[in-house]
Amino acid sequence: MELDRVNHLKQIPPEDWGKTPTSVKKLVEEMAQQIEKREQQLTKVLKVQEQLLEKINHTSKNSLSLPSSDLPGFGKKPPQQKSHKKLGYPLSNQGNSQNLYPIEEFSSIIDYYPEECVSCGATLVCLYL
């Protein structure tokens, strides 16, 4: 990518250049040199930028390079959206539980609390009474 270089001093007509004071001529010449230098730097930077863009776009999917040579983060899958489906058994699955009688059908309710542990035989204290 080559920039069109313009000689800035050639743009000034000779009669105007002849009327210009020496100090101004010197300043204009220095500025023209600086412009030339900046244009050369810009050309170099644009070449480097072009090379870097090629390097970034160079992946294992579009070349013969190994996947391990890809940049970090390349090929990451987008995060999956959460499902709005409820967890657990479907409503159609009733399970195998016992059918309980309604409380209205009982004449009395007796709370049973064991007095000793079935495993070790230790005395149990009921805190619910």
Secondary-structure content class: mainly alpha
Task: Give the number of DSSP strands.
Answer: 0
Return the average pLDDT rounded to an integer: 79
Cα radius of gyration in angstroms? 45 Å
Instruction: Describe the main β-sheet briefly.
Output: none
Q: Termini distance? A: 94 Å
Short key terms for the protein model shown above:
129 residues, 32% helix, single chain, rod-shaped, mainly alpha
Explain this structure to me?
The protein is mostly helical and 129 residues long. The protein has a domain at 8-69. Helices cover 32% and strands 0% of the residues. It is built from two helices and no strands. The longest helix has 35 residues, at 22-56.
